[in-house]
Design brief:
Rossmann fold; 427 residues; 2 domains; 18% strand; alpha/beta
């Protein structure tokens, strides 16, 4: 560690005002699935969820406010009355959640109150300390507590350690009961870009949660790809995802090795060819567009049209904060990551008709080999311009992917969730 790095992470730096993020508690196998004692406000949704998600004991580690019954702006005072007296007694890494009725399903003053919840939760998330987070879940009034069980279980768990200030939308599709320990039992998943980094960690977490995993990466990464596959007790498939027959080869592998169609497809493979647009060669543009966006679009559409997606399948795209807020020198990359969000929008309806879902994660600053190689100044700024004042870890992205991939999350589709600690850039 350099002298400059030591100074930034030292008590002297803290006294000088350099933000020092509180250590985040992440999920470990064998631990209770929820954070501990959870206090719930009264309400039809919260009462039902409390029965489905029993909390622990000890310090208050979670707060859930049911705002689905708010009649108009005058009822917003209830937010203050519930949270204000409880904020001082929260345990470290506490999880705060607000449940609201989806505004687009409402009319008049009720809709006004529901939409106001976004400003409240995003602002409260920025006030919390000691690793605490606050998120908003919009539910369809035509649904019931069971539809939101997997989402609340995720948000009230250490699995969501780096997810803060986000808005989740839950629909009404029927879903199996949420399973705390192995929510992906019986699911067959494919993860592209699985040889190393975030992709390898996604494979680890999906396997930990019970899935069989097909690990995919370019033929040149076969050695490390095999290591990942062996570690997760899955299979390795060296494959260029831009190949014209990529989708059919995935389907053939699934049928030959597992005798079935695919339940989960994680489009994680991605490359960068960073240059200012003025200096960018056509090949640098084309390569990034082909791998990061063209391949996910082609593979998903072909699997759907050919019947090689199981009913109730989960498609998850890995987007990026660059696709939301943009990044200098990354016009090609940011275009593809915004395109992944477009893929979610475009296929949400067709996949719903198939009983399947599509969602995306948009990572912010995640501690990887690439970020470790950044110059000190930009790296430290990147780590700290979020409400949790630190970088995330690959497992934070993987946990969110696993939540989307669970059969119990079948009512969760069309979401783009930023895994960024509530980064100050973007929406």
């Amino acid at each position: 560690m350099s002298i400059a790095e030591k100074l930034i992470s030292s008590p002297v730096a803290a006294k000088a005002g350099v933000p020092q993020g509180y250590p985040l508690k992440r999920y470990e196998v064998g631990e209770p699935p929820l954070v501990g004692l959870v206090e719930w406000s009264p309400g039809a949704w919260s009462d039902g969820l409390r029965a489905l998600l029993p909390s622990g004991t000890g310090e208050t580690a979670g707060l859930v406010f049911d705002a689905t019954g708010l009649d108009g702006p005058g009822d917003l005072r209830q937010l203050y009355d519930f949270f204000h007296p409880r904020l001082g007694g929260l345990a470290p890494n506490a999880k705060l959640v607000v449940l609201g009725a989806a505004p687009e399903k409402l009319e008049g003053t009720v809709r006004i109150a529901a939409r106001a919840l976004e400003g409240f939760t995003r602002s409260l998330a920025k006030e919390l300390r000691k690793g605490a987070t606050c998120n908003l879940v919009y539910v369809d009034p035509a649904g019931g507590p069971g539809h939101a069980a997997s989402t609340l279980a995720f948000l009230l768990s250490p699995r969501s350690a780096f997810v803060d200030g986000q808005v989740f939308r839950v629909g009404t599709a029927d879903a199996p009961t949420w399973e705390a320990q192995r929510p992906l039992d019986g699911r067959l998943a494919v993860v592209t870009g699985a040889a190393r980094g975030i992709g390898a960690t996604i494979a680890d977490v999906l396997a930990r949660d019970g899935a069989d995993v097909i690990c995919v990466d370019v033929p040149g990464a076969s050695e490390t790809l095999t290591e990942t596959a062996n570690r997760v007790k899955g299979t390795a498939l060296p494959l260029d995802v831009t190949a014209a027959d990529a989708a059919s080869r995935l389907a053939e592998h699934a049928r030959a090795r597992y005798g079935r169609t695919l339940d989960v497809v994680v489009h994680n493979a991605g490359i960068t060819r960073d240059k200012l647009l003025f200096n960018m060669e056509p090949g640098q543009w084309d390569a990034v567009l082909a791998v990061n966006l063209g391949a996910p679009v082609q593979i998903t559409q072909e699997l759907l049209e050919s019947g090689e997606l199981a009913e109730g399948a989960s498609i998850i795209g890995v987007s990026s904060m660059a696709g939301i807020s943009g990044n200098r020198g990354q016009t090609n990359y940011a275009t593809t990551k915004a395109g992944i969000i477009g893929l979610v929008d475009a296929l949400h309806g067709p996949l719903a008709e198939h009983g399947s879902t599509i969602n995306a994660v948009a990572p912010g600053f995640i501690e990887t080999a690439m970020t470790a190689a950044m110059p000190l100044g930009p790296r430290e700024i990147g780590r700290r311009i979020n409400s949790l004042q630190q970088g995330g870890k690959p497992v934070d992205v993987a946990e969110t992917v696993a939540y989307f991939a669970a059969a119990a999350s079948r009512a969760v589709s069309g979401n783009v969730v930023r895994v960024c600690g509530q980064n100050m850039m973007g929406a």
